[in-house]
Write a structure and sequence with these properties.
Largest sheet of chain A: none
CATH class of the largest domain in chain A: Mainly Alpha
Oligomer: heterodimer
Number of domains of chain B: 2
Helix content of chain A: 55-70%
Number of domains of chain A: 3
Shape of chain B: globular
Radius of gyration of chain A: 26 Å
Radius of gyration of chain B: 22 Å
Distance between the termini of chain B: 20 Å
CATH architecture of the largest domain in chain A: Up-down Bundle
Strand content of chain A: under 5%
Distance between the termini of chain A: 66 Å
Number of helices of chain A: 11
Largest sheet of chain B: 2 strands, antiparallel
Order of helices and strands of chain B: HHHHEEHHHHHHHHHHHH
Shape of chain A: globular
């Protein structure tokens, strides 16, 4: 802040901006994240919800970058904004009966969701305020951020903390939680593929089309229908 | 530069950092926009030559070199149409989403040693992550257009990009493994010297991985022969069927920006970055010392090196586009899942074993070991902190902060 004293002509408003530059960006990103999160809840179109979710998660990634945690920020972009949302759009498009139905929540669901969300928020706020260390100023200047400790900790080796006086002498990393999460994700993927796969049984419409197109189509039809997601795309074009 | 502004000019830090950010953003924007102008003209000329035509010849005198500018004026003057039944907000926002993703990825791309918007210690990861966001603009455009051709295009694009991110990530991991870091600046620095130090020539596996990367990069930026999302002959231009005027041109700026970006990334990861094939500066003894004129001249030449390599990559993409026929969607998926992914996986394992058993190369004296330096993983808590990779980033955080 030494330079700001030399600029005597600056108004107090600019001085305020000089002091709160980092904080200003923090509040900007935080407001964006919260605002778009509310947008996700209030929107009734699935694709709009996805867009608001992307923007909200992107603003959260911005918060991570602002805090100097590039690895976590890039992770946020890669996994949540990039991967999950593309998969979400995919799932919506493949599973919806009529494409892009508007979602209408009943008032009972709304009340239930409100109660759950409010209690979770209360719990998280209480937990966040009760931690003494987090209220200390200047926390961001403690250690330079680096991706290597996180990476090595994920494969089971902690290099960021000295090993405690345990019998084995090394401190185990996050390998077990990482593997558990991976298996969970695998289960979710298999379930999603099961839900989204093309149905085997023939609908009356398909039989009618096949009958009018002749016996050649009948021979082709079963192979095309069992081909999974890729051929479901091409089959969608033919329908 | 920010230090110079703060200490010599006397600007307050927040203004200095804003000015620096503005200058960087301006330069990157001009690389994309100016690059798009040149590349669109080059694309027309190359397409014409490959098809035994002349291409634009009259606009701006010889060679039709003002053709892109004329195109731009035409696009500006076009009516901005939106189909009835389109989702207005999403239709309008989609081109900007695409362009922003393409633009943001340039932030972490180094043009020369310290010509980089923001040096991140996870630069490779950041670029790949942000580049994947471009698909979201395409999906939004396809959905919001209220046209079935657009929707089919968007679906194909989503399927293709999501699939090709897997082998692309595997290819990118190989240079990261050889360099021992995800910092793009460090990766390029480790390939300094003669061109035999480039990771392309590090071992046979990296040589193969480079070509897999090229295939996946062409697919991930949605260029022919993988341009199913905008297949003119079957989908009536696909996801941008309903777009016209300036919004349409934003999609194309994003596409040419992404082409340039993946080419520059290939240059940094495999082709030595800003290091020329022959270390002229080193032979002349220019690279010693920092801050003097000769040093900046070396940086400028390095920047030119990188731009040249990236431009060559873009030209190769154009050559491929006008040479190969378009693949069907099932062929695209087969190429990705049955060829690119297994090849990349095997080459990754091969490069790893090579690194383990033949770290010095087969011919000692020609190939210097490029990957022997690790980051001091196991030295304890101080090891990672003192290696200096994260230093510029830390300075930013510390000085911007209150």
């Amino acid at each position: 802040m030494t330079g700001s004293e030399s600029m005597t002509g600056l108004s107090g408003c600019l001085l305020l901006a000089a002091i709160n530059f980092h904080t200003l960006l923090f509040y900007l990103f935080a407001t964006l994240a919260c605002g778009f999160a509310v947008g996700v809840v209030l929107a009734d179109n699935v694709v709009r919800m996805a867009l608001y979710l992307v923007l909200s998660l992107g603003a959260t990634a911005g918060l991570f970058f602002l805090a100097g945690a590039e690895f976590v920020g890039a992770m946020q972009l890669m996994i949540y904004v990039g991967g999950t949302l593309v998969l979400l759009v995919f799932g919506v498009m493949l599973t919806a009966q009529a494409p892009f139905v508007s979602l209408q929540t009943s008032s009972g669901d709304r009340a239930l969701a409100g109660i759950v969300a409010a209690s979770l928020l209360a719990l998280l706020l209480q937990a966040a305020v009760s931690v003494e260390v987090w209220r200390r100023p200047g926390l961001g200047e403690v250690a330079p951020p680096a991706a290597t400790p996180i990476g090595t900790a994920l494969v089971g080796l902690r290099v960021d903390e000295p090993p405690p006086a345990s019998p084995s002498g090394v401190r185990s990393g996050y390998l077990l939680p990482f593997e558990i999460v991976s298996v969970h994700l695998l289960v979710v993927l298999v379930g999603a593929a099961y839900l989204a796969r093309a149905k085997r049984r023939k609908t009356p419409r398909a039989i009618e089309v096949a009958a009018s197109a002749g016996s050649v189509e009948l021979a082709v039809e079963p192979r095309r229908r069992t081909g999974g997601a890729t051929s479901a795309l091409t089959a969608g074009g033919a329908r | 530069m920010a230090d110079f502004l703060i200490n010599s000019v006397g600007l307050p830090p927040w203004l200095a950092w804003t000015v620096v950010a503005g200058v960087a953003a301006f330069l990157i924007l001009n690389v994309i926009a100016g690059g798009a102008l040149v590349f669109i003209w080059a694309e027309r000329k190359i397409a014409a030559r490959i098809q035994d035509r002349l291409g634009p010849t009259r606009t701006g005198g010889r060679f039709g070199w003002l053709q892109s500018l004329a195109d731009g004026i035409k696009l500006l003057a076009k009516e901005d149409l939106m189909p009835e039944g389109a989702d207005e907000l999403l239709f309008k926002i989609a081109p900007y989403v695409s362009f922003c993703a393409s633009f943001c990825a340039f932030i972490a791309l180094p043009f020369a040693f310290d010509f980089v918007g923001q040096r991140l210690n996870v630069g490779v990861f950041f670029v790949v992550a942000v580049l994947g966001l471009e698909v979201f603009g395409v999906i939004l455009a396809g959905y919001a257009s209220a046209s079935k051709w657009s929707l089919f295009g968007a679906m194909r694009e989503a399927a293709q990009v999501v699939s090709y991110e897997v082998p692309l990530g595997m290819c990118v991991v190989v240079p990261v493994m050889l360099a021992g870091t995800m910092d793009l600046v460090t990766i390029a620095e480790k390939q300094a010297g003669w061109f035999t130090n480039w990771y392309l020539f590090h071992d046979p596996f990296t040589f193969v991985v480079f070509w897999v990367y090229v295939t996946c990069a062409v697919a991930s930026v949605n260029r022919a022969p993988f341009d199913l999302a905008e297949a003119e002959s079957e989908l009536v231009a696909g996801f941008h069927t309903e777009y016209s005027g300036l919004r349409w041109s934003f999609f194309f700026m994003a596409e040419y920006g992404s082409m340039f970006l993946v080419s520059a990334l290939a240059a940094v990861l495999f082709l030595g970055g800003w290091n020329g094939p022959i270390p002229v500066a080193e032979l002349l003894g220019l690279s010693a010392g920092t801050g003097d004129t000769a040093h900046y001249f070396v940086r400028l030449v390095g920047c030119g090196n990188l731009l040249l390599k990236a431009t060559l990559g873009v030209l190769v993409m154009m050559w491929v586009r006008w040479t190969l026929p378009r693949l069907r969607i099932d062929q695209v998926m087969t190429t990705c899942l049955k060829y690119c992914t297994p090849i990349a996986a095997v080459m990754f394992a091969g490069a790893m074993l090579w690194q383990l058993f033949l770290p010095g190369g087969v011919v000692p004296g020609i190939a210097r070991p490029a990957g022997e330096i690790r980051e001091g993983w196991l030295e304890g808590p101080g090891g990672a902190a003192t290696r200096g990779v994260a230093a510029p980033v830390d300075k930013t955080v510390a000085q911007v902060g209150p």
